[in-house]
Amino acid sequence: MTTTSAERPSTRRGTSKIAATLLLLGAAYCLLPVIWVLIASSKSAGQLFSTFTLAPGTHLFDNLADLSSYRDGLYWRWMLNTALYAGVGAAVSTFVSAMSGYALAKFDFPGKGFVFNVILAGVLVPGVILAIPQYLLLAKIGLTNTYWAVLLPSFISPYGIYLARIFAAAAVPSEILEASRIDGAGDWRTFVRVVMPMMRTGLVTVFLFQFVAIWNNFMLPYIMLGNDQLYPLTVGLNGLLNQGASQPSMYTAVVTGALVSIVPLIALFLTLQRYWQVDLAAGGVKA
Asked: What is the pTM (predicted TM-score) of this model?
């Protein structure tokens, strides 16, 4: 029995409804914690555990003021530290990934396959496993409890190198490289002036992934740092959360601090999103 043309649109509509429902459920699953943090940060310490979970309060600005006044604005010091770790770490990591990915994609050298396999193996290794060896290595040269203890391990990202290698292989034609060399450009100038602009979309993606990973990193700075003036937000807020056991009022500071901490990530995503849209549109025109 064959399917009539009148039955096919109804089947498509049914499939579309199922897909839309699944997407809405996924969006709700991802956004519900953010909505909870937004609502909880508007409540006082007394309301946080005594009122309905999704009932908003009117103390958001009071909580922000209390958070800012905690130990003379220590929270904002944590915010600046996190921006330093994530910004510098992601920028250097993106540049290193770009060079490494370009070399693996466009150059032939002895051991190339072995190096790439080692990088793939590094992608599979959780960062938590490397935290202790990194601590021991940095302790030997006296860099623990400094900014470098968090920055140096973030400069190398196996996953970023892997992505950059894929983007370089797909976005940089060998003919363009040959033309650049014929025009007299050296390898370094070719990389900076020709290769990196062509890899822009991929490098933005690498930068964003690495920035978010460093911004949310907890274990590495928790192990490396002992001075709370050097803490990032994750470690600092964890300390406030531990204080909540004896000082319940600190719970509102933790929730409010968590809300403020996601604002830079949202702003960064919205800022970099235009680069993806421009390049996707250009790709559609070329196709």
From this structure: 0.86
